[in-house]
Each structure stands twice: as structure tokens, then as C-alpha cells.
Design brief:
440 residues, 6-stranded mixed beta sheet, 17 helices, globular, binds protoporphyrin IX containing FE
Length: 440
């Protein structure tokens, strides 16, 4: 174990806040499996050994909760799946999970294709596009229609903007030491409340519309509305709102971010771009690949997996021990912060040759060979593993296949070097501006 020492009362807080990825990389550079440091008065243990990570996320997961500062997300996500703790989490996960079976994903896949076709038909013959925004808005539309049978077209910009604003303000609060309590009407607190109010309004409209019509459907909203606990009680409106908001947020930004980085990597690796285009041209017979076709597109899957190795949307996973606990030979204390970073592990020199290089061929049949569990884990692990993993993979394959099939892209500025912007997800700071041109 390595101790990053600091003499100031703030510990490493300033360095972490200024550039969290560069700070974490210093941890990796120590060559140790575990690095301990202080963020202000908080003890932090950064774990970089796959077996210890497995202990925390899987084997001894009952001894851990989510990290306290995630509570800053509470006004947005409430007690939805992402933030709830046992026993509520277990109960809600049991309700939500069955909406993500392969049978459901098959139905969602058809809707994803329809939305993609509609959206791409509106694109011009030759134009400049901010692809990162296109991905955000398309994934938002897809999540709304597949999960909640809702068309958010009207309020799409508003929902997207409000979610973005809320997330930025939350990240600012998580990273700052002094923060005004929520009840004080600072400009930021007011902005935050306004964003939440806008989102609440859209979500309550979706829920009330469905309740009013009484229409049954094969989607998540139906499951949430009609599930009952062992005593026959339905979910409260508040819980419904929290679950819907959580899926809205967790279900679109992550995928959009992953797709943005994937396109950037393709545009800067022409040999991979051409190879992917050849695969898509050979296998995709219609405007947008079918569910059967995406199964055959193995190079496309490897490209996407390799892109999430370099730029995992969930770049940091935090936990907090609820009791003093030993993992391996490391003693962890109640209430301290445990950091586990897919971003670091995915670039760990002990497991990857040329870790910084984009090499889709590292993956064979969608797997990394000779790499232990929890070296590559873009979707997390244990009982809190991403519930939308297969949804995200399917959606990404459909969108990527459709773009490559119908358009030719080049970077708007061929020298563009994007800046990583680690909010809750690993965004691209100024987005991805491209020239797009129809191929047919
Ligand atoms: C490329 C896209 C995605 C990535 C990389 C991703 C990654 C993750 C990760 C790492 C976690 C675990 C966090 C932790 O353990 O603290 C997680 C949880 C979660 N994800 Fe995803 N996700 C993606 C897409 C989606 C989609 C499309 C949905 C919904 C349709 C979704 C819904 C959720 C939910 C609800 C949780 C919380 C699960 C729980 O705590 O039980 N995610 N995701």
C-alpha cells in the first residue's frame, strides 16, 4: 500500500478537483495495488487490484453501501435503483430486472430501429453535425419510448438541458468543500431547483397519462405501475417518479457518451473505420441493421468494447464500508471512501500492452483473453451491475451500424484533440463536431 501524503488540511482535494483523472493516474503510477490518501478530512482508499475489487463489488458486497456524496444526487434520483440501499434496492431491482430480459430487448430493438430510421431521415445530404448532441437526443428519445411508451419529442430539448444542468451542478457540489445548504437561495440552488421542477413535470405527465388511459403495455412503466409487494401494495407515486427519473438519466447519457468516444476513435483510426464499414456493408441489408444482423457484426462489437476500455462512461465507482472490514490484507474503516476506477483498470499496464492504444483486436468473441475478472468492467459488477447492460449494447450496435451504413464522416477539425470531462459520466468536453455526407 502506498500513502499519498499531504500536509495541508485539504489533503489532496484540490488536485483531485482540478483533474480527477490525472490525479487517479498518479495512483496507478505508484505501481501499488492500493493507494491511500485524504480528501479534506475524508480517508480514501483507491483499489487497483482485480481480486480486491471483486471482494468489494461481489464477495463482500453486503459490507458496503454507495458512497455518501452520491446523496447529492438524491434530489434528482431520490430512492430510485441507482441510489437506494438494501432492503429497498433488492425489492426494486426484482421489479425492474424482468423488463430487461432478452425477449424484452428484442422488442426494444425494433423500437430503437424505428427511432433511428426516423431520426436519420431528417439529416441532410452534406452538413456539419455535433454528433455528441445527436447521440444524446436520440438515446433520450429511445429510452423514453422503449421504457415508458412516451414521446418526449416536444420536451426533448428541455429534458436534455435540464438533466445536463442538474448533473453539472451536482458534480460541482460533490467536488466542493464549502457548499451552501439547499434551502439558501443562491443562484446555483435556484437553477438546480428549476431543472428538477422541469424534469418532475415531464415525468409526472408521463406517469399520469398512462394511469389515466389505463392502457397496458409491455414496457417498464407498466411493470412499475402494476407490480405489488408481498402485501399487495403498489409503488407510491414518489417511488415511481424516482425509478423513472433514474432510468431516464442512467439509460441515455452513458450510452451517448460511449458512442461519442467510439466515433471519435473510428475517425482517428481510418483502418478500423474502413474495416467496420466493410463489415456493415456486407451484413446490413436494410437502412438500419436488424437484431439478427447486429449479432453477426463482431468487429463492430469489438470496436465498441475497446472504445469503452479507453473511455468507460462510468469512470469511477465508489463504495463506503458500513463496518470495519478486511479485504485481502487491507483493513477498511466504516464510513471511509473506497474508489474503484474502470478508467484506471482498463489502462493498467500489467494487463494491457500499449494500454493507451486503440486496438479492437484485443477482444476475441467479445472477450479479453488472459485477463482476470474486474480488469475490464465497464458495466460494474455484483448485485448492482448495470441493469441496462444488454439494452445499451443493443442500442449502440444499432445506432453505430446505422450511421456507418448511411453516412460518411470526417472530423470537422482534423487536428481536434478532445478533452475528457469527467462528470458523473466521462464526457467529451466540447463534443464531437463532424462533416457528414450521405453515402447513397
Ligand atoms: C454504455 C452504457 C452504460 C454503461 C457504461 C453503464 C454503466 C453502469 C455501471 C458501471 C453501473 C454500476 C454503478 C455502481 O456499481 O456503482 C450501472 C448501474 C446502472 N445502470 Fe448502467 N450503464 C450503461 C447504460 C445503461 C442503460 C441503457 C440503462 C437503462 C436502460 C442503465 C441503467 C442502470 C441502472 C438503473 C443502474 C443501477 C443499478 C443498481 O444499482 O441496481 N444503464 N451502469
Amino acid at each position: 500500500m502506498y500513502h499519498l501524503k499531504s500536509r495541508t488540511p485539504m489533503g489532496q482535494l484540490n488536485s483531485f478537483r482540478k483533474d480527477p483523472l490525472a490525479f487517479l493516474e498518479r495512483g496507478l503510477d505508484t505501481g501499488e495495488d492500493v493507494v491511500r490518501f485524504r480528501l479534506a478530512n475524508k480517508r480514501v482508499t483507491l483499489i487497483m487490484d482485480p481480486d480486491l475489487i471483486k471482494q468489494v463489488l461481489v464477495v463482500k458486497e453486503d459490507a458496503f453501501q454507495r458512497f455518501k456524496p452520491y446523496k447529492e444526487l438524491a434530489p434528482l434520483l431520490g430512492q430510485g435503483l441507482l441510489l437506494s440501499e438494501k432492503p429497498l434496492h433488492k425489492q426494486q431491482r426484482k421489479i425492474v430486472q424482468p423488463s430487461f430480459t432478452p425477449r424484452h430487448i428484442l422488442t426494444y430493438g425494433e423500437e430503437m430501429r424505428r427511432k433511428t430510421i426516423d431520426s436519420l431521415r431528417g439529416w441532410g445530404k452534406k452538413e456539419k453535425r455535433l454528433l455528441s448532441d445527436d447521440f444524446m437526443s436520440l438515446t433520450l428519445e429511445i429510452i423514453a419510448s422503449t421504457m415508458f411508451g412516451a414521446d418526449v419529442l416536444d420536451g426533448k430539448e428541455q429534458v436534455g438541458r435540464s438533466l445536463e444542468e442538474a448533473m453539472e451542478l451536482i458534480t460541482k457540489r460533490v467536488r466542493s468543500f464549502f457548499k451552501a445548504p439547499k434551502f439558501i437561495k443562491t443562484k446555483e440552488n435556484q437553477q438546480f431547483q428549476k431543472a428538477i421542477d422541469t424534469l418532475d413535470e415531464v415525468i409526472m405527465k408521463i406517469i399520469l397519462n398512462r394511469k389515466k388511459t389505463g392502457n397496458r403495455s409491455n414496457d417498464l412503466l407498466d411493470t412499475l405501475l402494476y407490480s405489488q409487494d408481498s402485501e399487495g401494495h403498489r409503488m407510491s407515486d414518489r417511488q415511481l417518479r424516482d425509478e423513472v427519473m433514474t432510468i431516464f438519466l442512467a439509460g441515455h447519457e452513458t450510452t451517448a457518451t460511449a458512442l461519442t468516444w467510439t466515433m471519435y476513435l473510428l475517425l482517428t483510426h481510418p483502418e478500423s473505420y474502413l474495416k467496420l464499414q466493410a463489415e456493415v456493408d456486407e451484413l446490413c441489408r436494410e437502412e438500419v441493421p436488424t437484431m439478427e444482423e447486429i449479432k453477426e457484426m463482431t468487429f463492430m462489437r469489438d470496436v465498441f468494447l475497446e472504445s469503452m476500455r479507453l473511455y468507460p462512461p462510468a469512470w469511477l465507482i465508489n463504495r463506503m464500508p458500513i463496518e470495519n472490514i478486511q479485504v485481502g490484507d487491507v483493513g477498511l474503516r466504516t464510513g471511509e471512501t473506497i474508489m474503484i476506477s474502470p478508467y484506471l483498470m482498463h489502462r493498467h499496464p500489467a494487463y494491457f500492452d500499449n494500454p493507451e492504444k486503440f486496438i479492437p483486436a484485443r477482444f476475441k468473441q467479445g472477450k479479453l483473453l488472459n485477463v482476470p475478472d474486474f480488469v475490464y468492467f465497464p458495466f460494474g459488477g455484483g448485485s448492482r451491475i448495470c441493469v441496462g447492460k444488454h439494452f445499451a449494447m443493443t442500442e449502440s450496435m444499432i445506432l453505430l451500424g446505422a450511421l456507418i451504413k448511411n453516412f460518411h464522416f470526417t472530423l470537422s477539425d482534423i487536428e481536434y484533440i478532445p478533452e475528457k470531462f469527467p462528470l458523473v459520466t466521462l464526457r467529451m468536453k466540447d463534443g464531437l463536431l463532424v462533416h457528414s455526407e450521405r453515402r447513397f
